[in-house]
Amino acid sequence: MTTHHGDNSELSAESMNEYVSVRIGDQLFGAPVDAIREVFAPQSVTSVPLAPSEVAGLLNLRGRIVTAIDARRRLGLPPRDANDAGMALGVERGSEIFGLIVDSVGEVLRRPRAELEPVPAHVDAKWRAMVKGVHRLEKELLAVLDVSAVIGSAGSKAEAA
Amino acid sequence: MDDLISEFLTETGESLDVIDSELVRFENNPEDRAILDNIFRLLHTIKGTCGFLGLPRLEAVAHAGETLLGKFRDGELSVSPPMVTLVLRAIDQIKVVLESLEHSGVEPAGDDAELIGLLEDAAMGRLPEQAGEQVQQQPENWDADLGRELRPGEVSLADLEAAFNSADPEVDVPEIAAAEAAPVEHLGVGDFDPDLGRELRPGEVSAAELEAAFASADPEVELAPAVAELISKDMSHEEALHTAMAELKAGDDHIIGEGGVKVMATVRVGVDVLEALMTTVSELVLTRNQLMQTVRGLEDDDLKGPLQRLSAVTGELQDGVMKTRMQPIGDAWRKLPRIIRDVSTDLGKKIELVMDGNETELDRQVLELIKDPLTHMVRNSADHGLEMPADRLKAGKPEKGTIKLSAYHEGGHIIIAISDDGMGLNTKRIGEKALEKGLTTHDELARMTDQQIHRFIFAPGFSTAEKVTNLSGRGVGMDVVRTNIEQIGGVIDVTSAAGKGSNFSIKIPLTLAIVSALIIGCDEQRFAIPQLAVRELVRVGAGSDHTVENLNGARVMRLRDRLMPLVDLHDVLGVGEAYNGASDETGFVVVLDAGGRNVGLVVDNVLDTEEIVVKPLSDSLRGVHAYSGATILGDGSVIMILDPNGLAGEIVTAMEDEATLEAGAAKAAEMANTQRLLLVRAGGSEPKAVPLALVTRLEEFDPKAIESTNGRLVVQYRGRLMPIVPIGSEIRTTEGQRQPVLVFAENHTSIGLAVDEIVDVVEERVDMQMSSDRPGVIGSAIIKGKATDVVDIAWYLDQSRAGNIQRRASNRRRRILLVDADAFARRMIAPLLAAAGYDVTPTGGMHEVHAIAEAGEKFDAMVGDPSALSRIRQEGLWPDLPTLAVTDWPEDTQAEGLTAVLPRSDRGALIAALDSVSQEEKVA
Predict the structure, then answer these.
(1) Which of B221, B256, B287 is the last residue of a domain?
(2) What ipTM was predicted for this assembly?
(3) Which of A63, A65, A98 sits opposite B630 (nearest CB)?
(4) How many whole angstroms separate alpha carbon B92 and alpha carbon B115?
(5) CB-CB under 8 Å, A55 with B621
(6) CB B602 within 8 A of CB B568
(7) Across the interface, do B632 and A60 touch by the CB < 8 Å criterion?
């Protein structure tokens, strides 16, 4: 949101980014809070034969059908343990809800916007398309997910076909 | 956009549609006051609203139209087709302006003076005045005939619209003048004769008009009536205004005329509100079902009573909401009378459109989806189904052709029939075209009933624009119609009798929101199949009369003395283990109507039938054709809805895979299907094989008919000279015996390969054992236990063109990945490539491609439909391979990232391109 005096205000909310921290494989990711509708535990996911591999299946979220997208698949990581259902980030796009399946969901982190650094150029192109930037945390790096890119390419690829 | 304007647009759009059809009705019943009053009232309302909203351009056109109608109403003018055409043109012009109003929110700039002038001329009393106007414009050439020729019916609508839309009026006038002048010259001045006039434009000249033309020949009567009319025009306008106002005041429950439009107390509700309501109610129904299922086992009477009531109320609510979505099918038909009128005027045919069952209701969503297919079909019937009046009379039929539309309910479906009493479908031509398109073979065609042949008009790609005239245009775009109808779970069929007419029938569900579905089990998973597609259920295995049998690896089942192909859902979906056919295992066969024929789908279990709410598929699953949607069952679980038509495609693929798997070829590289081969003897005793799919026809010629010109052998064939090339060294003819010739047609040229003898047709997998250096031979394979040379047709084709391309310099057979979702296309291209000496791996979809990529297969080139190839490109599979896209519409295809885009019809070009790609590769 911009106001006519927005440029001067260096105050908290305007300059901080809020992330839901999630873990996918060994990497810590941050999903921008405003991109996430809710966090839920995926239950009874119906697998869809013949579907693109990143589609983990469909599930019922309070009467709505949610397409579960496996973040590990999208990022080219090895699959999770079969018994581990993981957690899901609910993402609304258009009239559809997607569930982005991650390994685990942690706390909400706030980082100054100014500290967001671009993704180093030698990072795998696949990742660069889905990661908006990197925050340096004390112990590790927080890769900021472009949630709609992670979800989105599933849809756009189908359109291209 | 302004709310007022948007409401005005909706309302006016509806009114204009009514006016359109009412005008046509009025033209046929000029005595019916009620119709005219209704038209007048609607147009007047439009005019009034335009004035109120400050839309002067619309107001002016509406006013001019209304004035003319006022003359009809006051009996000052008699109704004639040109007059009606003029009013219709005014309506069209209003539509044009409205459309741009809808896009931009403002009235477009432009001048309707021309049209308004014509309308005013027409309204200026009887024809003498109009004639008088013409004299002023073109005093030299004016003739009694001219008055008629200048009528708007003579100038095509497109021309007029172009003229109106054009900003510079100075350019337009000569254009129109030229268009007008032409018929005058054609007729010749002073050549006027009433009979001649009628002959030139059959069905257009009314008695009134002729009288008028005679009257107009006398120029002395002109002036006085003109003044009189001018005065009465103003008066009648005022009068009309009063009448209209009175009618408007008359109240909401006013009912106009017999068969007219009823105006009832209604509230305008946005469609999205209804959709949302429908979704909510659907959820409520599901929750109710869930609750009922939970309570079923309990013995709690306190709970049961209220629940029962909840259930009943929910049901009523569902019905009620469904009703709000229902609309009479007449809404979809409203535009048809006008379309038919235009077509009949354009073509000079006489057509009567009979509509039966207008009030039959169906879901708004379904209605929207069938509107265009219906319009297309009715136009088709008028355009191509009905004959010209003269031909009809010759055939002993009434001059006026009839197109009949009817609709009625049957079960949960609505049946719509479109029939005409025209010439019927041309069975022979359709058959020929099906052959040409490779949809069938001579053998199959010979065994087909007429109806089966007629159904080819629905085959995908059967009618492409360029081929329209080949089929006398009949069946144009019927594949598109079929696709549209099947998308909403409907089926379409055709019956036709030569000379008597055709009858198309469409069966569609009343609503798409809730469908009855069969729930089946397959590999621990459940799937829904829409009941509409299910013909019957058969149990196979232990304790059943039916068994699954094998026919050369393909599974079949005997069903009432017929063999039905079976396909296992496990194989189609690539899950679990297929039904093994052992007697101790039971399975179920769901007999599906897949693209018009019976296919048995083998599943593990049939569990239930349930009313399901269809939810659209997510974007990420839209590429998977096996499903039409998903749904949530009563127990809360999500299941996929199988799409019988999409499944048909997968089924064909699965059948092909299965056949090869059974043949012992497990490697993906050997997924090539078995081929039908023609065994011939030529130039030697050993048999030679030719892929049958490439042979267009088998002919026998009298050896005397084969002539020699310019050192080449030719024969006169179908009015053309066809070169004859012997497969052996020479043509060896025996006296008195006819010479067998294999005809290959390509791009309007054909060549004949002369052979000594046609031996047999076999179906075998061509496993090339040795490649060959000899020209004209691809290599040798074992066919029917004998070493057989496989003939290189492409080489002979090149020979005949004297364009011998050097190919296959390398001894290694080049591998081609063929990707095309269309099974027919794969069948066409695969043998062609195989015949040209390539090793082909046909694939139908991305999942197969992925499997092959994962298996680490290597290829030399990719051939296929452009979208599939671009997708492979995007995914970065086989990045350096040349890609040759083959499509019916090469000029519409984005060539980006593709090596070449080639027309599907040009087989030679494809082979040539592949060869050159291979050559380049070798050099590099």
Answers:
(1) B221
(2) 0.83
(3) A65
(4) 11
(5) yes
(6) yes
(7) yes
Residue B395 has pLDDT above 70, yes or no: yes
Does B653 fall in a domain?
no
What pLDDT score does B585 carry?
Answer: 67
* Chain B residues with beta carbon closer than 8 angstroms to that of A155: 618-620
Is residue B477 domain-shared with residue B593, that is, in the same domain? no
**CB proximity list for B562: less than 8 A, separation 6 or greater:** none
Superfamily of structural domain A14-160: CheA-289, Domain 4 (2.40.50.180)
- Interchain contact A126–B (C-beta under 8 A): no
Distance CA A140, CA B623 (A): 39
- Residue ending a domain, among B193, B221, B249, is B221
Instruction: Pick out chain A residues at pLDDT < 50.
Output: 1-11, 154-161
CATH of the domain at B341: 3.30.565.10
CATH number at residue B69: 1.20.120.160
Helix (H) / strand (E) element for B476: namely none
| CA pair distance B829, B875, nearest whole angstrom | 24
A48/chain B closest Cα distance in angstroms:
7
Residue B729: CATH number of its domain: 2.40.50.180
Whether residues B215 and B162 fall in one domain? yes
Contacts of B286 in chain A (CB under 8 A): 63
In our burial notation (b when 16+ CB lie closer than 10 A, e otherwise), range B26-59 reads bbeebebebbbbbbbbbbbbbbbbbeeeebebbb
Q: Look at residue B654 and tell me if it is in a domain.
A: no
Nearest to B574 among A50, A98, A161 (CB): A50
Q: How far is B791 from B689, CA to CA, in rounded Å?
A: 6
First and final CA of chain B: distance in angstroms?
61
Which tokens is B743 given?
């005809």
Q: Measured between CB atoms, which of B615, B619, B639 is closest to A46? A: B639
Amino acid found at B314? T
Q: For residue B478, give its domain range.
A: 330-509
- Whether residue B263 sits in one domain with residue B275: no
Residues B587 and B619 in one domain: yes
Tell me if chain A has a CB within 8 Å of the CB of B640: yes
- Does this model's pTM top 0.95? My answer is no
What distance in Å separates the CA atoms of residue B547 and residue B566, rounded to the nearest whole number? 11
Distance CA B734, CA B347 (A): 56
CA–CA distance from A38 to each of A111, B90, B299, B535 (Å)? Answer: 20, 56, 39, 44
- Per the CB < 8 A criterion, the answer to whether B742 and B698 are in contact is yes
In this complex, which of A54, A63, A161 lies closest to B867 when CB atoms are compared? A161
Residues B361 and B478 in one domain: yes
- When scoring A43, A44, A45, A46 by the number of chain B Cβ atoms within 10 A, the one with the most, hence best to mutate, is A46
Q: What's the total number of domains in chain B?
A: 7
Angle at which helix B33-53 crosses helix B223-249, to 10 degrees, equals 80
Residue B234 confidence class, pLDDT cut points 50, 70, 90: very low
Q: Spell out which residues of chain A touch residue B640, defining contact as CB-CB under 8 Å.
A: 46, 48, 58
| Of residues A44, A50, A155, nearest to B620 (C-beta) | A155
Which pLDDT score is estimated for A21? 94
A91 touches chain B (CB under 8 A): no
Local structure of A42: helix, strand or coil: coil
Residue at B210 is within a domain = yes
